[in-house]
């Protein structure tokens, strides 16, 4: 197991779907074994085995043993009881910095967890879709604006000190894949019109992550996102 302890700040679906592809049945130790196969309906397929069927999974290819919400997206993981690694994704309407739906409950729980770990640093990664990038001349402006919206929520509503928060512009360089049905269910035109929120009490500078246990989960942001002076 990659993680020895899991901590959640939201109501999470952490059930693991256990599927048996075959079972050996025998009534005589000397007789040939019968192999019984069980067909799995397409609606129950769970390719990344996070407990959320592919048809409803908005965050496919989740790494093993990660805590996810009912949409299949990682919310919080922690290696130890005194270590915080938090991840949350929020989506926006196309060409807009207005959130698609009410995330108040998620932000309240996130704020509470951040107060339990006062040394944890918050990383806000703003993204745009390729279509948004092609329509507007400065895609960075939209991704930064989206990041500022999230920062303001954390500062003004959850009383998180602004110096604990860093905003990064990722433009469309880190694309997320989602099934058509999942996008339709949430009225999402593109899963890339989003902000990814990470918080860690292990990492506070993406320029200095070499050799840390959680390095791999931050490398893509370090390589493809630019720090914004705000």
TrEMBL record:
Cited Gene3D superfamilies: OmpA-like domain
Keywords in alphabetical order: Signal
InterPro entries per the UniProt record, alphabetical: OmpA-like_sf, TSP_type-3_rpt
Molecular function terms from GO: calcium ion binding
Leader peptide range in chain numbering: 1-24
Keyword Zinc: no
Superkingdom, natural source: Bacteria
UniProt-recorded name of the protein: OmpA family protein
Species the sequence originates in: Psychrobacter raelei
Lineage, highest ranks first: Bacteria, Pseudomonadati, Pseudomonadota, Gammaproteobacteria, Moraxellales
């Amino acid at each position: 197991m990659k993680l020895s302890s899991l901590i959640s700040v939201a109501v999470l679906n952490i059930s693991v779907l256990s599927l048996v592809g075959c079972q050996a049945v025998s009534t005589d130790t000397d007789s040939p074994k019968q192999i019984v196969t069980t067909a799995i309906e397409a609606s129950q397929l769970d390719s990344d085995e996070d407990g959320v069927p592919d048809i409803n999974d908005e965050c496919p290819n989740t790494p093993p043993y990660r805590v996810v919400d009912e949409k299949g997206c990682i919310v919080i993981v922690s290696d130890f009881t005194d270590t915080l690694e938090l991840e949350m994704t929020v989506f926006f309407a196309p060409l807009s910095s207005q959130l698609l739906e009410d995330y108040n409950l998620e932000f309240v729980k996130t704020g509470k967890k951040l107060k339990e770990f006062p040394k944890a640093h918050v990383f806000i990664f703003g993204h745009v879709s390729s279509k948004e990038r092609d329509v507007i001349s400065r895609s960075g402006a939209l991704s930064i604006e989206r990041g500022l919206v999230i920062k303001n929520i954390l500062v003004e509503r959850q009383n998180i000190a602004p110096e604990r928060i860093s905003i990064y512009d990722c433009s469309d360089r880190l694309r997320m894949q989602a099934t058509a049905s999942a996008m339709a269910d949430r009225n999402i035109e593109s899963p890339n019109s989003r902000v990814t929120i990470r918080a860690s009490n292990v990492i506070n500078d993406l320029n200095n992550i070499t050799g840390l246990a959680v390095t791999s989960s931050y490398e893509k942001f370090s390589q493809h996102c630019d720090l914004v002076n705000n």
